């Protein structure tokens, strides 16, 4: 039997009783979607799954990002390797910590829906796990906005640009990243999304405007846009909206990109090894009402009204 136990905090629940190496039954899929909308971050502890099984579980929730890279699982381009481990002088993955607060793929026309990560090695120091991931609740951040801000931004849109993230990383001490070339920028042009987005599972509004990628609110003049973005970024990152997950080997962690922001903390050293396999699920199906199981549709409709 599947058991979903909330953390009791602003985000997060632990899911027990599911073996993710096996295909999801329809009722389990519906329960996980509902829990994802309610809790934003789901932990499945003690999962022993292969990269192919991680891919197959993730694909139940939408289309998977595919890349051809040395940082992918060999033969499985949907599974990325997040790691600081170097073998024979070559890194075996890419680092994902230290990117600051953001939500993945908001710079894409088709945004990210969920991340699914499987922890294989977790760095520790003095018995304490390092490399935790923090999250912020964008349902709550929207609900707490002042009424005048909600009115001013009703129907507004924001530009999200990958180059903002890239330049922020280049500005860090010791960075050797070159600027994006015109060809690289052309492959990832800015995208525009509503500042207030109706969440596809809950039907409630979320604040979809993150400090990692958002650069301009289109309906405001430049000065007011900068002023408003500064306010929104400070508002959404208040401690009361945050929850931090401390990793354990075997954890599969799934989180909702639309209803949360996240930040992976780079508090470990090169010899303190971290190894995680990841699938990035795109929101290419979730906005289609037919995608949602029947059990979720009435609750979402009620929330929207």
UniProtKB/TrEMBL annotation:
Keywords for this protein: Dioxygenase, Iron, Metal-binding, Oxidoreductase
Q: Which InterPro entries match?
A: AtsK-like (IPR051323), TauD-like_sf (IPR042098), TauD/TfdA-like (IPR003819)
Highest taxon of source: Bacteria
Annotated Gene Ontology MF terms?
Answer: metal ion binding; taurine dioxygenase activity
Q: Which GO terms describe its cellular component?
A: cytoplasm
This chain's protein is named Taurine dioxygenase
Ranges for domain TauD/TfdA-like: 8-279
Region (Disordered): which ranges? 170-194
The processes (GO biological process) annotated in the record are: sulfur compound metabolic process
A Pfam family reported for this protein in Swiss-Prot or TrEMBL: TauD
The family assignment reads: Belongs to the TfdA dioxygenase family.
């Amino acid at each position: 039997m599947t058991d979903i136990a909330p953390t009791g905090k602003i985000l997060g629940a632990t899911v027990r009783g599911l073996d993710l190496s096996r295909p999801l039954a329809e009722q389990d899929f519906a329960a996980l979607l509902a829990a994802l909308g309610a809790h934003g971050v789901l932990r499945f502890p003690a999962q022993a799954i292969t990269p192919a099984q991680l891919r197959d579980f993730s694909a139940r929730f939408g289309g998977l990002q595919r890349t051809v890279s040395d940082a992918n699982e060999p033969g499985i381009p949907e599974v990325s390797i997040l790691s600081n481990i170097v073998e024979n002088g070559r890194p075996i993955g890419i680092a994902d910590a230290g990117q600051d607060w953001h939500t993945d793929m908001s710079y894409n026309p088709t945004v990210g829906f969920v991340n699914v990560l499987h922890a294989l090695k977790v760095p520790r120091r003095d018995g304490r796990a390092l490399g935790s991931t923090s999250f912020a609740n964008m349902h709550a951040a929207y609900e707490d906005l002042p009424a005048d801000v909600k009115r001013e931004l009703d129907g507004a849109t924001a530009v999200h640009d990958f180059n903002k993230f890239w330049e922020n990383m280049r500005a860090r001490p010791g960075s050797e990243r070159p600027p994006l070339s015109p060809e690289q920028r052309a492959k990832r042009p800015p995208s525009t999304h509503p500042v207030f987005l109706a969440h596809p599972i809950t039907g409630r509004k979320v604040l979809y405007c993150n400090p990692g990628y958002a650069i301009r609110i289109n309906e405001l003049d430049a000065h007011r846009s900068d002023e408003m973005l500064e306010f929104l970024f400070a508002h959404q990152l208040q401690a009361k909206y945050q929850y931090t997950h401390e990793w354990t080997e075997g954890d599969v962690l799934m989180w909702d990109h639309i209803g949360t922001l996240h930040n992976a903390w780079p508090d470990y050293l090169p010899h303190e090894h971290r190894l995680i396999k990841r699938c990035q699920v795109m929101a290419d199906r979730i906005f289609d009402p037919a995608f949602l199981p029947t059990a979720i549709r009435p609750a979402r409709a009620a929330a929207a009204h």
